[in-house]
Design a protein that fits this description.
mainly alpha; single chain
Length: 231
């Protein structure tokens, strides 16, 4: 049992290190968003213990946070999936049925996204008085409606499934704590990359904003006209 736990810990350490490495390779390509911000908060990142362990506070742009939290969550999801396949047959059967149902959908816009976009809303927030003619999420819902629903479960099956879901949740919490513990060892690398690639861009934006506030108008607009020479 001890050997198994140590193997799991080593595997998680390797996977988290690889996730951080991938995020570090992506970070130099990050640029501040210039479009209108969203009203809704990201449930994956808000108050995330993963981001706290990584040392990414609220002063770090959400795009930077999301890229790391999504990669770390993928490590947790992979571990839980392996645990479920080995130990939770009822839950695994339910997941297999749901996966087959998902594959039957003709339109799956939320699948195959890069980590930086995974889990974010598919559509931008609508502008007041300017409704969308259609939305990506609406098209996906229309496609989902054409797929037959999963067969109903008996009360006994529901109770057994809830028990296995609880076990999966407990295991996910345990793995999540281990991932956070590993991330603590990568804090210096993570914060160093933020200092190198993110903070200079934010400082440049603030400097440009300061200049525009100090001089909101082009001074040339107020130049006095040159008097005409006397005839």
């Amino acid at each position: 049992m001890t050997d198994t736990v140590e193997t799991v810990e080593r595997s998680l350490e390797t996977q988290v290190s690889q996730a951080v490495d991938a995020w570090l390779r992506w970070l130099p390509r990050w640029e501040p968003a210039t479009h209108r911000g969203r009203v809704a908060v990201c449930r994956r990142c808000l108050g995330s213990p993963i981001l706290s362990a990584a040392g990414l506070g609220s002063d770090v742009p959400h795009g930077v946070q999301h890229g790391l939290s999504t990669r770390a969550k993928a490590v947790i999801d992979h571990s839980v999936a392996e645990y479920t396949a080995r130990n939770l047959p009822l839950l695994q059967a339910e997941l297999d049925q749901q996966a087959a149902r998902n594959r039957a959908r003709s339109y799956r816009p939320a699948e195959g996204l890069e980590p930086e976009f995974d889990g974010l809303p598919l559509d931008p927030d609508p502008l007041p008085g300017a409704p969308f003619l259609f939305t990506i999420s609406g098209l996906a819902a229309d496609s989902d409606a054409d797929v037959p629903a999963l067969p109903p479960l008996s009360d006994e099956a529901k109770a057994a499934l809830r028990q296995e879901v609880g076990l999966a949740d407990d295991y996910a919490s345990m793995v999540g704590r281990e991932v956070c513990a590993v991330l603590l060892h990568h804090r210096i690398r993570i914060q160093g990359a933020v200092s190198q690639y993110v903070e200079p861009q934010i400082a440049a934006m603030l400097e440009e904003l300061t200049r525009s506030l100090d001089a909101p108008f082009d001074p040339r607009d107020f130049d006095e006209p040159t008097p005409e020479a006397p005839q």
